[in-house]
Specification:
The chain is mainly alpha-helical. The protein is built from 11 helices and 2 strands; from the N terminus they run αααββαααααααα. Strand 1 and strand 2 form a beta hairpin. Helix 5 crosses helix 7 and helix 5 runs antiparallel to helix 11.
């Protein structure tokens, strides 16, 4: 067992213990499927109470780094998170930061455009017929005037997620998780009243056409048009938010 049991301070004990075990996993001192000591043993070695150990283990379980098994051969074991679990963890962390106002739209838009431009270039060469069809289906859906705004926003997210998947680069897809799975929906919720849905569908159509013809330049041009419109819409939404408190008789309830 290669966990550092020393050097704890009195505040945030559960967090510190979970970080020590996590470090041991990431550094390879604890191997996948290796069994951890029991809660009593960990409490004794760390010099803390069992509830503190339970809290530390809950933190690790939330990161999909450990799993529990019942029975005679049971216990708590080191596990390897799946790609989807890791992606969800990144997206959840990004969503939390967005809700706390840690990211400005300019930074979100810049990061998203750079990531998706790279994806456009790769997807123009690597996209599959199934991915093109999936994107075409979203465009058809977006052209339905009866489609609710929330469903339109969800379709927009799916379209751009498929674009990233079409790059066929798992590492790039993982890097884009925070932007597409959390930042894009958050921005959509702010600007949906200002979107020209026909314009969005047309921009998506041009992007799709570029990918279908393996024209990365055309796909990137359509993406830039889409992102520039997004920035304009967000500025309108922000201007309205600033103006509302000063308007007489406006209720915010």
């Amino acid at each position: 067992m290669a966990i550092d049991y020393h050097g704890l301070v009195t505040q945030g004990l559960a967090r510190q213990i979970s970080e020590k075990i996590r470090d041991a996993i990431l550094e390879g001192r604890l191997q996948v499927d290796e069994r951890l000591p029991t809660e009593d043993e960990l409490a004794t070695r760390f010099g803390v109470s069992r509830p503190t150990i339970r809290e530390a283990l809950k933190r690790l379980a939330a990161q999909s780094l450990i799993r529990s098994r019942r029975g005679p051969a049971g216990g708590t074991f080191i596990t390897r998170p799946t790609r989807d679990e890791a992606r969800l963890a990144v997206a959840n962390a990004a969503s939390l930061l967005v809700s706390m106002g840690e990211f400005e739209l300019a930074h979100i838009a810049e990061a998203r455009q750079l990531i998706e431009q790279v994806c456009c270039r790769l997807a123009a060469e690597r996209r599959t017929p199934a991915q093109l069809e999936s994107m075409a289906n979203e465009i058809r859906l977006q052209r339905d005037p009866a489609l609710p705004d929330t469903d339109f926003c969800a379709s927009d997210v799916r379209f751009h997620r498929t674009l990233v998947e079409a790059a066929c680069n798992p590492a790039l897809e993982f890097a884009a998780a925070g932007v597409l799975d959390s930042l894009q929906p958050a921005v959509n919720l702010v600007i949906f009243r200002f979107r020209d849905r026909r314009q969005v569908a047309a921009q998506h159509e041009r992007l799709h056409r570029g990918l279908a013809s393996k024209d990365g330049d055309a796909a990137c041009a359509a993406l830039c048009e889409y992102m520039n419109a997004l920035r304009r819409q967000y500025r309108k939404a922000q201007a309205l938010r600033v103006a509302l408190p000063a308007a007489p008789g406006v209720s915010h309830g």
